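ping. complex inputs:
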Amino acid sequence: MPESFEPKIVAFFCNWCTYLAADLAGTSRIKYAPNTRVVRVMCSGRVDPQFVLDAFAKGADGVLIGGCHPGDCHYQEGNYKALRRFVLLKRLVKQMGIEEERLRLEWISAAEGERVKTVVNDMVEKVRALGPRVPARRKEVA
Amino acid sequence: MSKANGDIRIGVYVCHCGTNISAVVDVKSLAAYGATLPNVVVSREYKYLCSDPGQDLIRQDIAERKLNRVVVASCSPHLHEQTFRNALATGGLNPFFLQMVNIREQDSWVTEDKQAATRKARDLVRAAARRVAWNESLERDRIPIHPAVMVVGGGIAGIHAALTLANSGKHVYLVEREPTIGGHMAQFDKTFPTLDCAACILTPKMSAVKSHKNITLWTYSEVTQVDGYVGNFKVKVRRWPRYIKEDLCSGCLECLKACVYKEAKFPDDFNVGLAKRKPIYISFPQAVPQVPVIDPETCIQFKSGKCKKTCIDACGERHAISLQMEEKTEEVEVGNIILATGSQPFDARRIPYYGYGVYPNVYTALEVERLVNASGPTGGEVVLRDGRTPKSVAIVHCVGSRDEGTNRWCSRVCCMYSLKLAHLIKEHTGADIFNFYIDIRTPGKGFEEFYQKLLNERVHFVRGRVAEVTDWALDPSEENKLVIRVEDTLAGIVRRIPVDMVVLSTGLEPQADAEQVRRLFNITCASGGFFLERHPKLAPVSTFTDGIFLAGCCQGPKDIPDTVAQAGAAAAEALALIDAGFVETEPNAAYVMEEVCSGCKTCVAMCPFSAIEFLQEERKARINQAKCKGCGTCVAACPSGSIYQHLFEDQQIFEEIEGILTNA
Amino acid sequence: MASTYGYFPGCSARGTGVAYEESLLTLFRLLNLSLDELKDWNCCGATSYMSIDEGSAFLLSARNLSRARQAGHRELVTPCSACYLVLRKTQDYAARYPEIAKSVGDSLVAANLPPLDSVTVRHPMEVLYNDVGLERIKSKVVRHWRGGRVACYYGCQLVRPFAEADRPHDPTRMDELLQAVGVPTIDYSLKTKCCGGSLTGTIHEVGVRLNYILLKEAARKGAEAIVTICPLCQYNLDAYQGEIRKHAGEPLDMPVFFFTQILGWALGGDARSLGLGRAISGRRSIEEWFSKHAEEVESYV
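pong. complex structure:
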């Protein structure tokens, strides 16, 4: 594994909780690993498994889905649906040979700016240890 | 679903945000990079894009360069998406051809490595440029706003909000859990810094509420269910039975005198347990409504069925007492809701070394408010539980607040009320007063001057966090006293100060049921447990749920002037919506491509808003665009891929993913 | 609830605190609980070593914990507060700080000892409270208390920072145990104030003064004896009353018991096996209160 491998993690954050938590981390100037690239969705329930598979196929080293805590979904139950899908998706992804630590679902509420840091840092560390998902294909932008 | 047709012309704008972004992200190289992306015809950087000249820059380019897509890389869309959408709209472009990139809150502010931050920004800008090509022209729908408003909580915040709305001609439902409105302010004696009598300034407002034709006052009531959305809330309110008919009661209170309990025996909540009440009671003489309540837990008739019911006799021909009353549920429609549910005082028992509940002469500030109050349990006499008048009093600041072990925040009002109590106690008793503080926080108008007044009154101030309150006597002068052990940090010594009475200035914390209440209204709580406002600086009264506003201590500890200001602000924001008559929706509803729909009905059950109906004859699903809230769950779930979502199309998201991960 | 516990006596149990061990073993025997002493246990280092060389101090405790595990014990009872604290602290720090876990782990491996596992460190006071229970103790009482009111003194190390044995600021379990056997207790505000620990040996006047404060306040509140759970507290409060009488001019002569002695007495233990004769102060009260066996007390010393 190259010395300077920096994993790239595609993150789907729900607008009302996790995205706000990430904003809060920003306003609080909490520093964390710069490896995530956030795609904003309205609800974690919007995250189609195809997005996740597409991200891996196109070279993402990890995929993080962030939603509201169970019971707190802005749209009542979207996060439960995300959870159901996630459980099956995890199995599928494992069968495809992608390590468990590369796909993660976290509940982060709008007040939990600090948690964004903990989760991101932890995931980046774990994924870094695993190495790039597709060693040859991913081209680093200059 | 629109396709990116041939002539896409994108303008990329990178904001410096002063130095907030530019100090970390290389904005110049980012703008230069933007210019190299496909379909980008102009790429600029500017110091403050959200400013007028910044927006003009965009508008100019739209006109001159014939832009049909705009990417703005700046702060969070939560802050300025609306601003830039308006800029596009006034520039003649559909506002939804905008895509924002968050390179501040989620990049420059959270990254130390400048190169990494710039790389991140490049990936995100590239992604946005790909995505925006697939954005489509959308129109906002309008939802009508029901003109009535519900205010939950009848303290000073709720009262002021209700009066403001009612005076403008809108109908208000004011729902209060206690049998009377007035909240904590009704328990205070005098208010700082003017030492106005709290009841004197509050009771006129309370009667105004009672007599206002536009206010429906429901006390002894609680909200149990909230359905709907901004402009169209359906709220269920449970009204507990008082066993006394409000419309028949004249407020004479003869029933209280007549009760078979000659002596009051049960703890009186209004007097914080310092006095007792009978099973039939009224919180305080100026309660609004002026109608007593019968407590079924303590009333003999309810417990055994064998009471002489002297209260009913005393009521006589009015027949206002009705022991058969049952709880009732009301259901109303309102357009907006203002939450003014207040806070609760910190429970001093949680700090055992301050002796509350252990030593009888340790009081909380709220208890002392009742003591100094002329209509309180001791008629305004500051006397200890054993009847003595204290000759020395310690006031301990920051009880429960600014404390890693309990609540980290500063409760904002305690320094001022501690000074106020110091003044009032000294006035009533002439005692030696010691205030033990960490800092003296007196920021408001007239507050610092009030502090100076206290210094001139020879109140002693010791800077040090009290370590303990103990009855341990080291020598005869400390016998029968409570000893304050504290490090006097300015003098640099540890001191023992024996006093007769200790007052704990307890902080403010969220109500015990704040979690349940916020779920009821579908809003969030911040980390301390107070309700979360939309933006701490720029949107302190609105929440992330449109149509629900916050006023008073439920959003965070504050004093009466700030509470009233916030209540007025919440009322104003509600009024703005009502007067506009409609609210515009975010056009992110889902829609079904009926040709592709296979009629499997998977989506129908998924929708928490019941926005999807199944057309039996056609065997297709159809989504009600007004009911759809845009969560996108059905979009992700549809097995045939026939459900799409405006503003968050699959294709748009795939483009974002592609943009993040690969070269353009 | 195990009826055989691993037992770590600590050094003072064989020194100035020998009455503690005697009464502990007697009491447990009366309750059908057995204590299986760890073979080849070593000194825990107490607070002294912890404050000089924390890293090495952890190793001392780690060895004891590991030997407990080796002997198959899931629970290790230690009567001494300092031993209790140091053992618990070692477990706590090893769990929280990877560097300490590593240094401890490495040393255990080098000494051919099993790794630190979940051995629960217990104190007899909470073993009696939790495992035996007040009701069972009450049911086994055979003697009425004929002594005066007592002040239950917990000291600091048992109740802070680990709040498992009792509440840190207002512990009451010892009071409850004694009340269950009919001993009246006072409200003692200084029950968790430091006795000075080893200061009586190092900065003598400071240590003695701290004990003077404890004794005086107990007397002021109407106590005629102090009951403790720590051997060093008992020693400090017991040994210097003569000096206090001389320098402060106060007529203090208060017996300082171990709670196991009082409970053991109520449950039928004899004065000798409870070490009642080993007291330095308050001997007259001891004679009166345990007078049925006065000849035993006199002849023992």
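The two ends of chain A are 20 Å apart (CA to CA).
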